[in-house]
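[agent] plan:
  1. take the single chain provided in the ticket
  2. run structure prediction with default settings
  3. attach structure tokens to the ticket
  4. add a short note for the reviewer (M.T.)
[agent] executing step 1
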Amino acid sequence: MVGVAPAIANAVFHATGRRLRSLPMRAEHLLASAA
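[agent] step 2 finished; step 3 output follows
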């Protein structure tokens, strides 16, 4: 079981307060969720 993607998703959530629930995780998705 690979835990890299969930670890990165949690790090993004803790840093920004926004959850990325789709793969691939891209900066565009994070910026779109901020709007």
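[agent] step 4 note for reviewer: The chain has a mean pLDDT of 87.
[agent] ticket updated
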